[in-house]
Design a protein that fits this description.
The chain is an alpha/beta fold. Helices cover 63% and strands 9% of the residues.
Length: 980
């Protein structure tokens, strides 16, 4: 009759049908409608859509919930937090408690109270088997928010996500790839594929947080996250990020967990925590009255149950179920009578024992079906259960009805497919543990086969679950395959901890397979897979161990391609650990293989690391040659803006080439290289490569003394590292920006960043360039007049440079040690000269002209203060010449200031017009005379017989001036002398 009434494309149902499906569908009431053959109008409803049910409580509402008792104080705490959140002061409330005490029920009652009207509800539950599946809880949150269904294919998911996201706010469009990635939808977006994995991870976390905060601007958001003790690490990272952003949000976050769970929110002013304990006796008795009734003969039983269960609500309910099933109670719920004396009643000591006994009492078919469901997981798709149940469909449905009646399972979905869930996590755990090992293993194996058939067109969505079942089913070939694919999926999301777990489980599963070449190749590949997430987690020693194992295996197989891949990581490891000799050795091996195979990508990686390692050793000319060749080779293959990994190699090589040129004093060539790096970085849209390019630009400007240009570039680099979690790179702009600020006089600000640069590097376990960041910290300490600590830190920098063979950094440290010795009280002039002499000798050997100039400046100042005017003039004049030649203006002005202390007459050789013009400009406004020596030909010989001591000194000074003009182009005269 309803079908006859319905218009085409619609479905109508009666009130009786609605009662059967209530809680699972959304309807529109049409009011009483006359129906042919019925005496009175029938209340009719139009079926709009199915409702997704996500929890056992949602599923049990239609069946009737037990009374909610004894939680008035807890509800009041939640109401207070809600009021603060509604006013724009976001809150997080954490509820802790043992299993079964009613954490979920508390949240249900609160979120369905009248006070929650007008709030957007969001939330998800973590599961025991999902702890190693990255973003699983976040994904569930998004599936609920975007109203995604099991039957939705990728195209439909994309449509739903795009539509809802852009309806909320068009400015959220850039976050669309992040949501699609999280929902396992292929992302056809070149910009999204470009970022490095840590940046992509951060963008995903930020996108979900931004969505919630943006919804909070439309209406207050109530987000509920349950069972955090099973939360995967990436969902935990999202939750941590969301909590950090709550203070100014219209959002209330509720979380629940068991007591063993740990977090870091306790000190936040907007955090509230309370523990749910079992019900007090009065409330427990009230609950029992609702369950069994008010017959006075039940009072002794109630007292026994309260004592035995200690007021745990779930334990109480299960105990009543047991007593009814064993005929200790007769009647119906709420109207029971006791059939035997209370002292003869046996109540198990734990809720687990109660559940186990109830399961054992089920008919054999029902018990086996419940156990099969437990193997699938807490949520049980009907199609999957039917596939593994080994019984006819009619028997499955009959037994499911019985299990629902016994409240072991609830039906949580009717459309598009039927799905069940266990009433409680404890029910699932006990049912699973009741299985014998052989049957458990066989059922897991069947689940793998069934999932491969049922989800053949969307297996990547289920890699983690397939891996879970393959391992427990001991289907080892499939276990290795699915574990590796799950690890790769996690690594692509930068879920490093989960990736490591999956890859290590795959390595363990691989040992169960027969030995042979194929197994060894897989063993190598898994070790290579592990290195990237381990490297990002800072576990360098584990990376070395795995790389060495892979190296030995590849050598045994004679597999040069795999051996080359191993070498790339060994190069990187030894480079980061400050072992440049070994890095260069592996780099040369890798390059030979790349050259032999004609593998441009391998050649670029090898040349790049060779160049960086040579730079670290202070072999600047060799580094320059290798890096220039690499840049030119990459340009030849892909132009001057390569993408992907080649783009990273191009920008990094160009940046390090500029760094090398800056150390050599070839600043104009460095600027050209930096221009290439920055153009390629901007074209890539890749935050990591852009940050590398900006950092190297800032470094080159800092070396040249162009501090006002260095400052914004380095600040942007550091900001990007913080925003995008570029932790491996962050120490570099931190240290460089710190030194820039110190030189600009912002010493306190700079010192904090210099400290960060060193500590961050040490935390990562990186030793490459640690000597440089340490000597820069010592320079900041010297500027802060913390001279004792500066000397200690500088000595440590020297030790690091010597230990790791970083000769360029050794030279920079020797220069600073010379400066510090000169600042001692009294100045240790001899010691300082020794340090400066060593710095100059090493700088000359390595062709470090900027360092030569600054060491000459420092030595000249030292000698001036020590009263050795003539030697001071020699070194200061040399510094002035070098600094002018390289246009290092910051230190050039300091050299000119030092020379001013030596005299007020500057005589410049007639051919040195540029120097003459510079000195005239520099000393404009000073009581200084700058003149050109316009004398022609040989100086006139004078009578050698001294008329007096004064005339003899004047003659000697004249000769010195003439020599200075002849050798370095100018002289500083302390006073006007004859013939000047």
């Amino acid at each position: 009759r309803m079908e006859q009434l319905a218009r085409p494309g619609s479905t109508l149902i009666s009130r009786d049908t609605l009662r059967l499906a209530e809680g699972y569908i959304e309807v529109k009431p049409l009011g009483p409608v006359p129906v042919k053959g019925m005496p009175d109008p029938v209340e009719v409803f139009e079926l709009l859509r199915s409702e997704q049910v996500h929890s056992r409580l949602e599923a049990s509402v239609a069946r009737g919930l037990t009374p909610f008792v004894g939680r008035e104080a807890e509800i009041d705490i939640l109401h207070q937090a809600m009021a603060r959140a509604a006013a724009g002061h976001g809150q997080i409330v954490a509820v802790s408690g043992e299993p079964g005490v009613g954490k979920s029920r508390l949240f249900w009652e609160f979120t369905h109270s009248h006070r929650a009207h007008g709030w957007l509800m969001m939330g998800a539950q973590a599961t025991s088997y999902g702890k190693n599946t990255s973003y699983l809880t976040v994904k569930e949150l998004l599936q609920s928010y975007f109203q995604l269904e099991e039957r939705d294919d990728p195209r439909r998911v994309r449509e739903k996500v795009t539509g809802k996201l852009l309806t909320l706010d068009e400015s959220l469009r850039p976050t669309l790839p992040a949501f699609l990635q999280l929902l396992d939808v292929p992302v056809d977006d070149a910009e999204w594929q470009t970022p490095d994995l840590p940046q992509r991870r951060q963008r995903m976390l930020d996108a979900v947080k931004r969505l919630i905060l943006r919804e909070g601007q439309v209406q207050p958001v109530l987000a509920v996250f349950e069972n955090l003790h099973w939360l995967d690490s990436e969902s935990q990272a999202f939750l941590d990020s969301l909590v950090d952003s709550l203070p100014l949000a219209r959002a209330l976050v509720l979380v629940s967990y068991r007591p063993e769970y740990q977090h870091g929110w306790a000190r936040k002013s907007y955090y509230t925590q309370f523990r749910i304990d079992p019900l007090p006796p009065q409330s427990a008795e009230e609950l029992l009255s609702a369950l069994v009734g008010d017959d006075p003969g039940l009072d002794p039983l109630k007292q026994l149950l309260i004592e035995r269960t200690e007021g745990n609500p779930f334990f109480l309910e299960e105990s009543v179920h047991t007593l009814a099933e064993t005929k200790v109670l007769s009647g119906t719920r709420g109207h029971y009578r006791l059939t035997r004396e209370v002292h003869k009643v046996q109540v198990p000591a734990t809720v687990q024992a109660v559940l186990a006994a109830r399961i054992d009492r089920q008919p054999i078919e029902g018990k086996r079906l419940l156990q099969a469901a437990a193997v699938i997981g807490k949520d049980v798709p009907m199609a999957l259960l039917q596939a593994i149940a080994d019984m006819p469909e009619e028997a499955v449905r009959r037994n499911l009805a019985q299990l629902q009646s016994g409240e072991f399972l609830y039906e949580i979905s009717l459309f598009p497919s039927v799905e069940y869930t266990f009433r409680h996590a404890l029910t699932h755990e006990v049912a699973y543990s009741s299985l014998l090992q052989d049957r458990r293993r066989a059922l897991h194996g069947r689940v793998v086969q069934a999932m491969e058939q049922l989800y053949a067109d969307r297996l990547p969505e289920h890699f983690e679950r397939l891996a879970h079942h393959a391992v427990r089913g001991e289907v080892w070939p499939k276990a290795v395959s699915y574990l590796r694919q799950a690890g790769t999926k996690a690594a692509m999301r930068s879920a490093n901890r989960e990736a490591v777990i999956f890859f290590e489980q795959a390595m363990s599963a691989l040992t169960r397979l027969a030995e042979g070449r194929a197994a060894t190749e897989q063993a190598i590949d898994l070790r290579l897979d592990l290195r990237s997430p381990l490297l990002q987690m800072g576990q360098l020693e584990r990376v070395l161990t795995l790389s060495q194992e892979a190296e030995a295996m590849a050598e045994k197989l004679g597999d040069e391609q795999r051996l080359a891949r191993v070498y790339t990581y060994l190069i990187n490891y030894h480079y980061l650990k400050g072992e440049p000799d070994l890095a260069i050795e592996y780099g040369e091996r890798c390059l030979r293989i790349g050259d032999s195979a004609g593998d441009a990508s391998l050649q670029a990686l090898a040349r790049g690391y060779l160049g960086y390692s040579c730079h670290a050793q202070g072999l600047y000319r060799r580094a320059h040659s290798i890096l220039r060749e690499n840049v030119e080779a990459l340009e030849l293959v892909q132009g001057d803006a390569p993408g992907g990994q080649a783009g990273v190699s191009y920008v990094t090589s160009s940046g390090w080439l500029a760094f090398t040129l800056a150390e050599l004093g070839e600043f104009d060539a460095a600027a050209m290289s930096l221009d290439r790096a920055q153009r390629a970085g901007e074209a890539s849209g890749h935050a990591y490569t852009q940050t590398i390019a900006r950092t190297m630009a800032g470094l080159a400007w800092l070396r040249r003394g162009q501090l006002e240009r260095a400052l914004p570039a380095l600040q942007r680099s550091l900001d990007a590292c913080r925003e995008k979690s570029l932790d491996v790179w962050r120490p570099i702009p931190s240290s460089l920006l710190g030194l820039t600020l110190v030189l600009l006089g912002r010493v306190d600000e700079g010192l904090r960043l210099l400290e960060d640069g060193v500590s961050l590097t040490e935390d990562l376990g990186v030793r490459a360039y640690l000597a440089l960041w340490t000597v820069q910290l010592a320079e900041g300490l010297a500027a802060a007049r913390q001279l004792d600590r500066a000397r200690t830190v500088a000595q440590r920098a020297l030790d690091l440079a010597l230990r790791h063979k970083e000769r360029g950094h050794q030279a920079w440290t020797l220069r600073l040690l010379g400066e510090l010795a000169g600042l001692a009280e009294p100045p240790a002039v001899g010691e300082a000269e020794g340090y400066f002499a060593k710095a100059l000798a090493l700088a000359e050997e390595l062709e470090m002209r900027p360092l030569q100039a600054r060491a000459q400046l420092g030595l000249g100042r030292l000698l001036r203060l020590a009263g050795d005017r003539d030697r001071a003039e020699d070194h200061l004049a040399t510094a002035l010449g070098l600094l002018r030649e390289m246009d290092m203006r910051f230190w050039l002005s300091r050299a000119a200031e030092e020379l001013l202390h030596l005299g007020h007459l500057f005589v410049v050789a007639r051919h040195n017009i540029q120097l003459y013009d510079y000195l005239k400009r520099e000393y404009a406004g000073e009581p200084v005379t700058v003149i050109l020596d316009r004398r022609h030909g040989q100086r006139r010989e004078r009578d050698e017989s001294p008329a007096s001591e004064r005339r003899h000194a004047e003659r000697r000074r004249q000769i010195q001036v003439d020599d200075a003009i002849r050798t370095r182009g100018f002289a500083v005269v302390p006073e006007i002398i004859g013939g000047a």
